Amino acid sequence: MTGLANLTPHLLNGVSLGLMFALIALGFMLIVGVMEVINLAHGSLFALGAYFAIFIVGLNLGVGIEARYALAFFLAPLGVALVGMVLEVAMRRTYGRDPLYGLLLTFGAALVIEELIRLVWGSTEKQLPLPPDLSGAMLIGGFIYSKYRLYASGAAVVLILLLYLFLEKTPYGAMIKAGAHDSEMVRALGINLTRLRLFVFALGAALAGLAGIVLAPIWGVRPHVGVDAVVPAFLIIVLGGVGSFWGAVVAGVLVGIVVAVTGAYASEWSLLSMYLLLIALVTWRARGLFGKKTVLEN
Amino acid sequence: MKRRKLLQMLAAGSAFYGPWKVHHAWAQAPQKKPLVIGLTMDASGQFGASGTSERLGAMMAIREFNEKGGVLGRHIEALHIDTETTPATGSRVAERMITRNEVAFLIGGLSSGVANAIGQVAQKYGVVYLNSNSSSPTESGRDCKRVKFVWDGNGTNFAQAIVKNAIKVNGGNWALLTNDYIWGHNTSKATRELVVKNGGRVVDELMVPQGTRDFSSFLLKLQQMKPQVVAAAVGGDDFRAMRQQVLQTKLDRQFAWVNNQQDWEDVYGLGAEAAFGVFGTTWYYRFDLPGVKEFVEKYKKTFPGMQVKNPGNTFYNGYVATRELLRCVEEAGTTSNIAIIKKLEGRKMTARDRMQHHDAWIDPATHQVQQTIYMATYNDKPAETDDIFKILSNVAPADIVDPDAPKACKMASYQETPSYEQ
Q1: Could you tell me the domains of chain B?
Q2: Which of B24, B266, B318, B411 sits 20 to 30 Å CA-CA off B119?
Q3: Choosing among A12, A54, A123, A126, which should be mutated to test the B contact, i.e. which has the most B CBs within 10 A?
Q4: What residues contact residue B197 under an 8 Å CB cut-off, 6+ apart?
């Protein structure tokens, strides 16, 4: 097999992994972009989505696992959105103050959510059962590949596109973008900024929950699984440029490719590679791939 | 007696009796100081689940002794601080427990990196430390300590029990999946040496960084390498994630998997199929041996409502290590470190007492417990939900002794070890 033929499956696998990374980062990006809050509870909300889904799929509703899984896919993010709204209400006193207050509050919230998960579901690993049609393996180009990973990547693409359309084609999306650009002007135009922030936080939390459901069958579910999500999410939005939608998507895919290729050819560097990528890119372009130029760079 | 005199006497009696009734400690013999044992066990991080189990094992042994009145007439107290599967935390926790909490002994250790860090602090102060569950060969080799006793079988023991037969049955082309830290490195090193010694070859070795959650690139690479056997030395949460992803791709059927050691908590709850491949363990809750049923019942009674319904090897190690230490204290009649070390060195433990198939002993040259190693695989005919292991064979400790450990182990003499007693 030639070098390129050897490399191709890893590149494709990297794209698939990257799409899932992008999905994890989107909710984080939305909250940072609009509210300028680094939500360290993003990982815990990610974990909460997975646990809510496990709870819903485990309910005895007299319907098949397919229906329960579909139900979980819609209801679990709503549950996480509600938790996100509570968190946003708690955060209101920190707006306009030193960003450290927001950081500390979301860090505290992350710990509280993780401990609550431990209390309710216990410390041991859980599994999110999958409908049989979504699980199993398939042969692609002579390689055995997880069927679920393809569906998960597909789900990530659909969710990314839906969010894009929502932000670009709906008046609510316009308000969110305007809020990210100049919140005082938005308020002056008569838009209820408090409600807008509440909605954005709920949407960001729901996206974290959705990512948790999608990643649960791959990563497994344990109370501290959120830590595995929040670090790449943070890295990806810095890499892509804070507040940039497509920046987050491209950076996610880039991180996925780098992690996948190093995993195959220099496996001991596979986790470190994303941080090296960040250092290299930020050294070259401090605002990230799609970040806006600041006055400091003029 | 005049009324005034009577009242005076009553007042004086009350003044004495009242405080005596409530605070009569002064009137009794002085209470003995409790014996504090420091439990240096992970409650979070890669080995959080197994660390929790070994802590419960130690707690059950302590409870048994306290029910008999403690040890040397002293009540035993356990002090646990999470070592977070992080060597720096392990070191800090050990230092704090010794200098501030005045613990008599230290017990605990899943990650060999953490155990090594704790061992260094323990040796500095002379505190006897039982490494209950970490199993890098270096723990009883290069990193051995006079005060440290290693309770688990190590990577070399397991590799010796499994490699030769696996080459015979599955073939000589091996790939190694190695968790990128001290236990993984040394376990894979032992496996590699045994593969070569038995006529096989290692086609490649993939390092798995700690904290890896996505194994897709490793699994694709394995398919490109086309080995006959994949020997995995991956532990904790990493191993759980890997097992799930191997099952999703059905790669458990593509290669023969040799998973050096399988901790119960790393596979519990994943379903019986997750216990694929051949792997080693030191104990199973369904052994048909005297005492096992009672031990399992005691676990259930002591810790009702646990998610892990039956105890596994890490719980077992936590229990037997603590029990043996407390027995040594009783026998020695002191908590003095050198006296306890001498009691532990060369100590013989019967198979019946340890609920294993062969007698065990503590090697005085390496301080490792030499014990029965069991080969196991997925149980296709489980008697109940938790019955996920099928025990294939047991290997006597004499047959799997790590031959390099005594040469590598250079421990401080008794004189060089600081005296310590609490």
Answers
A1: 35-154+288-372 (3.40.50.2300), 156-286+374-400 (3.40.50.2300)
A2: B266
A3: A123
A4: none
What's the rounded Cα separation, in Å, for the pair B165 and B119? 35
**CA distances in angstroms from B400 to B200, B279, B341, listed in the order given:** 19, 15, 24
ipTM of this predicted complex? 0.86
| B203-243 residue pLDDT tens | 999 999 988 989 999 999 999 999 999 999 998 888 888 98
Q: Residue A174: CB partners within 8 Å, gap ≥ 6? A: none
CB of B225 within 8 Å of a chain A CB? The answer is: no
Whether the CB of B289 is below 8 Å from some CB of chain A: the reply is no
Which one-letter DSSP state was computed for residue A293?
P
**Which one is the CATH code of A3-297: 1.10.3470, 3.30.160, 1.10.3210, 1.10.287?**
1.10.3470
Extents of the domains making up chain A: 3-297
Put residue B342 in one of left, alpha, beta given phi > 0 → left and psi -120 to 50 → alpha.
Answer: alpha
pTM as predicted: 0.81
Contact B156, B215 (CB under 8 A): no
d(CA B90, CA B182): 15
Chain B contact for A9 (CB, 8 A cutoff): yes
